[in-house]
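Design review, sub-item: ligand-bound model
Attendees: FS, YL, KQ
YL presented the inputs for the magnesium ion complex:
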Amino acid sequence: MEITYSIIAPIYNEFDNLPELHRRLSAVMNSTGEPWELILVDDGSSDGSTARIRELAAQDPKVRPVIFARNFGHQIAVTAGLDYARGAAMVVIDADLQDPPETILELAKKWREGYEVVYAVRAEREGESWFKLVTASLFYRLIYRITDVKIPIDTGDFRLIDRQVVNVMSQMREKHRFLRGMSAWIGFKQVGVEYKRAARLSGETKYPLKKMLKFATDGITGFSYFPLQIATYLGFIAAGLGVLAIPIVIYSRIVTGLHAFEGQATTLLAVLFFGGVQLISLGILGEYIGRIYDEVKGRPLYVVREAPAKEK
Ligand code: UDP
Ligand code: MG
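KQ shared the predicted structure:
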């Protein structure tokens, strides 16, 4: 039987959310009257989610589990889901029910109209800290400005992607993945649908500040050279200031005869400032070089403990 919709949900310690996720998704997807499947990717959960996923799969043949050998991260889990999915349209959704399953019907409607990528835009967000709201909003706008690919603002990974686009995406095996950027890069006909992002049903966010920062760096380094260019700009500014400063210093020391710019403090400040700028520039270079190194190692993206056969 040809599958129309593959729903992909990454799971990292979502024990309490799993039954409700399965229930709400089933209600929505069964209403379409079309064949669908649910790929639950267990990203190294340690709270019993794994057993619960196996239980769901035993009860419902539509559920196909992909179980990782350890935690590989959200973007990799979604990638694995896309690798194993067989549908004509794939829907990526969070397991914590922040993305309402009912919105899938709206995404599917646009897909039927001929759009290959239908992304869900967060018009409103519930139950999130002001810190998350502000940082997320700043991040979306920053990345929109500094990348050549136009990554839609206020848009997460909740989206419907046509098989054709997923086939291209599966060939992009970069290790540090920023899926929303990758799907924008591919092109095709894309459209946004607004939705209200709910609060997490249960549990805590699995994206603490450290993971958020890593995610943001992956997005920026994966789609922009801007941080590398900052060093060049700063270099020109510093050199320009230096050239301007020479006649001023000569004038104030020789012509006015004042004891201007004497002493260690001036030197110390300049050394500290430019030492700092240089180290930061080196660090930025390091970020890119580390990523090159990860690519060169050519390790697999993820390791599965259990997975369904990859038949098409
Ligand atoms: N997730 C994952 N691996 C991780 C972190 C998160 O698979 O290392 C999953 C998580 O279970 C959820 C989705 O990714 O289904 C989004 O995570 P979360 O809701 O914690 O992020 P937030 O909505 O707070 O940004
Ligand atoms: Mg969430």
